[in-house]
Structure formats: structure tokens, C-alpha cells
Amino acid sequence: MRSGPRRTADLDPRAFLERAIEEGADVHVREFPARDEPPGPFPEDLPPLLLERLALRGITGLHAHQRAALDLVRAGRDVIVATGTASGKTLVYNLAFAERAIADPRSTALYLFPTKALARDQLRQVRELKLAQVRAAVYDGDTPRAERPLIRKNANLVLTNPDMLHASFLPDHARWADFFLRLSLVVIDEAHVARGVFGSHVAMIVRRMRRVVARYGGDPRFVLASATIGNPAELAERLVGVPFDAVTEDASPRGEKLFALWNPPVIDDDTGARRGALTEAATIVGRLASDGVRSIGFARSRRAAELLADLARREVPASLRPRIKAYRAGYLAEDRRELERQLAAGDLVAVASTNALELGIDIGSLDAAVLVGYPGTRASMWQQAGRAGRRGSSSLAVLVAQDDPLDQYLAGHPGALFDQPPEAAVIDPSNPHVLEPHLRAAAREMPIEDAELAILGPGAADAADRLLAVGAFTRRRDRLVDVGREPPVIDIRTAGGRSEEHTSELQSRFGISYAVFC
What is the β-pairing status of strands 183-188 and 221-226? Predict the structure, then answer.
């Protein structure tokens, strides 16, 4: 049995790109220098037990942004940390709750992640602290029904996702009464994902949760973690509905990164058509794999990820082909976890993925990231590029332009990518199509008192009047009650059907098939 990851070759990004340019590749390269800032001290009054556990993991201090965020949380502030990939944001909220749990083991925390895979990866990190006072468990659509009562009874740290909070925790809030009463911390990780319609739904779910928690007597602090975005404090405040402090200066160490904007060659002089970005990216991934360099390729769809892996396998010797695989949503949970284990262990030399691996799952030390086309935002681009790189080691990111107007414009104007600030993340929880169904869901959870409409956000009072006018609400003892026969259908993920988590929860709790809703 191997004792560690497989050895891979060291990457020389400059040599790789110089060779490609000599072969005629159309490449623009931007260099980002290494940064090596040593950590500062921990707060002097952290519990000695916690310091001992951190030392066992090789964590000897906090970088400036981590210390700033932790100090704010300890002072009772709500904080969003918007810094780069692998900058140690997770440590901030884990320390905040670990300190609280050591002082009061009955206090509880709720961590929200956008994917089930990320929740399970973060569970592993929590358990590595080996603190008996922190009893952590994942509670999502994959959690067996038999385990759920034990988690509600025994866990003081629950990791889940917005879908499950919406579909299970809030409708069944009475089962979580003691947990909500003692709730001291709520974490929303990868908060930049909560944008657009999905983010607007998440904002309403969080506000519904705040109302329920307040009814049970809880008063938690909020910590949000995000990629670098243009409006972190504004996004946090619109998601949660309370003022936030933003920590945005990233002081974490990083190795040198070369970022190449790669335009595939023209294959038809008459039309100007270029070689397909997917084919070009597969060639790059295959060449890296043949050199023993571990890489990740990002494609926009599940089918494209599978095709990228298949094409890359054709570029390498037969002995390497089993070590190139695709990763995407839609696989069975055990298959996804096995792929995650193989990645972290170094068993794979390349993986092709949708944006499922854009988020902070621990996938080990990769040296190169290859993006098939511009992913739509600079925040996503930097998240994907940031999946490659080790502290002190050089890394490579390659964005392969597609043959469409936007990508071709960016290929000719690199400054539009590299010299512009990240975009703002925009949500609108006051949109009536979002707000009104969530108001109905809130009223079914608990009749709404007039004073609680402020918690449910701007426009809630007007939306309540509209629901009264159409007969969906009635007043009983100065409270708003939903009188509809059926609960509102709320799809927080897409416009076409119920979310994966909501469907899984319906199936596991009630035996209802997804086909009922099709």
C-alpha cells in the first residue's frame, strides 16, 4: 500500500508556454508574482486546547486577513471574507465556532454550502481538529433517514445546503427547536455562488431562517466566505438582511502563476473559423499529463466534461489513460467521493470537470488549470484558475478561447480580463416572483407577525397585502396565515424543475417520485 500521493513532475510554466509559442500557438501570457507573507500570531486568549490542535495540523498563526476577520467575529460582528482561492477562509469560521464550543459545548452552528460534496469535504476538515466539544455531521439529501434523529439530537455543528434548509429544516423547525435556541454561528460558504435568481432565493431562505431562529430565542452571528467580488458587503447584507463588515485584503502566500490566454489556430482561412476550444484544451491537458504534470480542465457542461476527458485520453500513452477521468454532478454520491479521494491522493494525473470543482473542495496539489472558454464572470475565472497552484510552487492557468464573439474579443483585449475589477454579484430578493412564494412558505412554517415583515426584507409588507387581496393569506389574531391548500412550489435552483436536494428530500421523507412534479 502506498503511503502517500504519487510523485508527479515539476511544472515549468515558462518552458511549457515557450514551447507552445515556438510551435505556433497564439498565446498572450500574464505573470502574477509569488507572494510569501508569514503568518502572525494567534489571539493570546484563544483556548490552549485549540492552539494545541492547530499545532498538530501545522498551523502556527493567522495571516492578516484571517486575524482581522476572526477579531471581528469575536467582537460580535457579522463578517464576509472575500479573498482568493486557498486563502484560509475556512479556518476563520472553524476557529470562531471551535472557541465557542470549547467555552460552551451546548452552543450550535449551521454551515451552508452550495453543494453536498463541499459540505462533506469541510466535515473532514472540521474533524481534523479532533475536538470532542465539536460534534459535527452532514445533514442533506444523502443522509440516511435512520441517522437524522441522531444528528438532530447529538450534533452541535450541522453542515448542509440552502436546498435542505428550505425543504427540511424550516418546515420541520419544531424538531430543531433546541438547536436553533443555541445557535451561535451561521456560515454561508462560497457566497459568490448565491447570485441572480438562485441568490435571491437563498436570501429569502436565510431570512425565513432568521425569523424562525428568533422565535426560538437564538441570536447567531453570520460569517460569509466568498471569492473576490466587486461588492462583498452589499451582497452579504442583501443575502442576510443585516449590516456586514468586509475583509478583502488577501495576505495568504502563493506561488508564481502564469496565466495564458490561448486562441486556437485558424483552420479555415476563408471563414476565419478556428479549431474547437474543447479539442485544443484536450490537447493541452494531454500534453501536460504526458509530461507528468497534474491538471484540471473546466468545461461548461456535463457532456463537454466527459468529452474533454475522452479526448485528453487519446493524447496520452495507454498507461496514463486510466488516470484521466471526468467529474461532474449526476454521478452517484459514492462515485463522486471516490473521484475526490483519487484526486486528493494524487492517483489521477488529470480531471475534466464542470464548475462542480470550481468550489473549495480539497482536490490535492494540482499544477495547471485549463478553462474551455470564458466561464462568464471574472470571479469564476479566477476561482477555476486558482484550483491549481501550491505555496511556493509555480502554476499555470490557460483559458482557451472559444470561436464566439465574446471569447474572441477577450482574446484580442486581455486587459478586459486581467486589468478590470471583479464583477458585482447582484440579487433581488424583493422580486415578487421570489418574495411571494417564500412569504407563503414562511407563513406555513409559523404565522407571520407584522413586526416580522421587516426581517423578511424590503417589499414584504406590500407582498403580504397582495397575498391578502387574492385570498392566499388571512389574518388571525393579528397574524398572517397561509390558507392555500397546497404549499407553494419553490424551485431555488433552476426555472424548469425542482432542485436535486428538494427532490431527494421529498423522496426520502414522503416516498414521492420526481415524476409527480413533471
Answer: parallel
